[in-house]
Amino acid sequence: MCLDKAKRLKNYINKYHLNNIFSPELIKELDIVEMRENSYITCQSSRLTHLYVLVDGKLKVEFYNVNGKLFVFTFATPLFLIGDLELFHSRENSFISTISTQEQSVLLSIPLAAVKMFGLTDPRFLEFICKQLSNKLFESSLFQIGVFLNVEEKLKRFLYYNSKKHGSLFLLEKRENLASVLGVSVRQLNRAIKSLNEKGIIISKNKKVQIIDFCSLRNDIEF
Fold first, then answer.
1. Where exactly are the structural domains of the chain?
2. Angle at CA 116, nearest 5°, toward 14 and 132?
3. What's the CA gap between 202 and 212, in Å, rounded?
4. Most exposed of 14, 35, 42, 161 (fewest Cβ within 10 Å)?
5. pTM, whole model, 2 decimals?
6. Distance CA 216, CA 223 (A)
7. Which CATH superfamily is domain 1-145 in?
8. How far is CA 132 from the centre of its chain?
9. Is 149-219 a domain of CATH 3.40.720.10?
10. What pLDDT digit, counting tens, does each position of 20-38 carry?
11. 3-class SS at 69?
12. Please, how many CA atoms are within 13 Å of residue 155, restricted to the half-sphere of its CB?
């Protein structure tokens, strides 16, 4: 590994305290992977050879069912682990989802063989995986199975959850992608955004949204 790359890797390790997650043996196996915007990291059913940790940028996680219908699961920001679900799934040798970059991104790759040798016997690494899986389960339950929620309530949940992560001002996803995450149509989503604007709960312009009334946004939301 060149000196500049080694220095960048060390910076990411220090920034995210990865030495508290990965053993020295796994740290030695880490490599930096740089991806341009709209690049595919994994494709559904592609072979699992590495786990990846997102340390910079943004990802889209999506899935095509047997009928070819697209579902967008989530939009991921650091730290986000790719391959944790597959590691313990019956389809261990292939990725379940298609994951692409939404902007220029940086990931740390870990060979699957190293994970099996050094990670699966390390309590710190296993705790990290459990937290990642827990977050994925929480997001799935938050946005996908709210069958008794109307469109506006689903949108309020999404906005509130993202405001807790990114603050009161953040960028919205493309309407088609966001509608897929919430399980609604783009037309329904646009109506809900307009309604929240008219109620003074948010101000949205172009791709940006600002939360104005947190109390109203959180009203009737249970986590």
1. 1-145, 149-219
2. 55
3. 5
4. 14
5. 0.78
6. 15
7. Jelly Rolls (2.60.120.10)
8. 10
9. no
10. 999 999 999 999 999 999 9
11. coil
12. 28
